[in-house]
Amino acid sequence: MFGLSELAIILIVVAAVLAIKKLPELTRSAGKSARILKSEARAARDADEPGTPRVIQGETVRREDPDTGTGTGTQDTPRG
């Protein structure tokens, strides 16, 4: 009969054959997850340095005037 190692190899081959259709979607999802993890790690590292400005893509932020505490009316444009 079959041993445990032969059965494991057969199961891996069957799983690979059945999952081949989903492989592009899985790799795309893994790439997105890796990019999110990388950006979160970078944000956590940058949070330790409070003097450095952060650029958040897609948002417009008003700067406050340090003398009065009110906005200056100028807006930063996101870099892309």
Give me a quick take on this structure.
Pfam families: TatA_B_E. The protein is mainly alpha-helical and 80 residues long.
Task: Tell me what you see in this structure.
By secondary structure, the chain is mostly helical. It is 51% helix and 10% strand. It contains two helices and two strands. It has helices spanning 4-19, 23-47, and strands spanning 62-64, 71-75. It has a two-stranded antiparallel sheet with strand order 1-2. A hairpin with a 6-residue loop joins strand 1 and strand 2 (71-75). The longest helix is centred in the middle third of the chain and has 25 residues, at 23-47. The radius of gyration is 25 Å and the shape is elongated. The mean pLDDT is 77.
How is the largest sheet built, in terms of strand order? 1-2
* Structural category: mainly alpha
Number of strands: 2
Strand content: 5-15%
Determine the mean pLDDT: 77
Uncertain spans, ≥5 residues at pLDDT below 50?
none
How would the global form be characterised? elongated
